[in-house]
UniProtKB/TrEMBL annotation:
<protein>
    <submittedName>
        <fullName>Glycerate kinase</fullName>
    </submittedName>
</protein>
<comment type="similarity">
    <text>Belongs to the glycerate kinase type-1 family.</text>
</comment>
<keyword id="KW-0808">Transferase</keyword>
<dbReference type="InterPro" id="IPR004381">
    <property type="entry name" value="Glycerate_kinase"/>
</dbReference>
<dbReference type="InterPro" id="IPR018197">
    <property type="entry name" value="Glycerate_kinase_RE-like"/>
</dbReference>
<dbReference type="InterPro" id="IPR018193">
    <property type="entry name" value="Glyc_kinase_flavodox-like_fold"/>
</dbReference>
<keyword id="KW-0418">Kinase</keyword>
<dbReference type="Pfam" id="PF02595">
    <property type="entry name" value="Gly_kinase"/>
</dbReference>
<dbReference type="InterPro" id="IPR036129">
    <property type="entry name" value="Glycerate_kinase_sf"/>
</dbReference>
<dbReference type="GO" id="GO:0016301">
    <property type="term" value="F:kinase activity"/>
</dbReference>
Amino acid sequence: MTRVVLAPDSFKGTITAVDAAVALAEGWASVEPTAEFVHRPMADGGEGTVDAFQAAVAGAVRMPVTVDGPAGVSIDTAWLLLPPTEDAPGGTAVVDLASTSGIELLDGLRPWDADTTGLGQAIAAALDHGVSRLVVGIGSSASTDGGTGMLTALGARFLDAAGVPVPRGARGLSEITSVDLTRLRTAPEVRVLTDVTNPLTGPRGAAAVFGPQKGLRDADDIARVDEALGRLAARLGLDPTQPGAGAAGGTGAALVRWGGVLAPGAAEVAELIRLPAAIDAADIVITGEGSYDGQSGDGKVPSFLADLAATAGVRAMLAAGRITDDSDTSLFAASTSLTDLAGSAEAALTEPPRWLREAGAALARATTS
């Protein structure tokens, strides 16, 4: 009997990591009905972080909350309460930016007005509950607001020359002349999950690298926001060159100022959901993501899982929405692309569960070929 650990990331915008793991297991079982499956859906701090913890931690409870979303309207979402432990007697809260202030919550990009207020409101709700520890995933941001929306929701004030709060989002950054942190809530232990190491400012900074993804495409606009982020860092007493400070449009820097510690997302999630122990007892580990490409080796879930499996002497396999020519699949004993199985990207995107089941079956057959 083969013991298979299923640890895919979400296939962004198409299927969650939880549902992807289920589909892969169904496909494998169609070839090997006696196989035993251990579900450990993964995340790296972005979309699906809350879901990954809920699937892996017994006793985890979703806590509903309504927040101000990045589109300027209220959204119903949730943070996750993990059971108390000796070192976190009030429990641990898992909050992700993707489900509170994420880009997937927008119908259209709002480069100047989207912000991180919703993330801060969800964190505040967890603090009100009395948690001892926070785990905050900050992938999939919709904004480049330097985390000012989040800090405002936690009690900070960002003021213009007249002492009036500046507008939300990147629009207000250049108007900030003073920062009032006297009412900023006290942080518990905070672990910040991110899969990027970019600084806050400069050619690899939040505005230059990630701003265009959020709608900041004009060079002058990017330069304006980059300069404003630099001034914000000075007012907050932050080092803008710190690796990871530029994550989520500068939210990484804001969380560091609040007291958070930046941590590699995939590694931190894996440890917290006890993935290494599951892999140690497995024969196969299957991972995956929507697009496995040349950047997937830079701290992303598939490459991290391949390294973990190699250390344990376990075969790693990959199922991805697409596998590009510049990617390295030599890390895996077998790999398959939903696009190839379906015949086109459009077909794969239309029915991801179906093609993930096909992928699971194909990988199972590869073990006996």
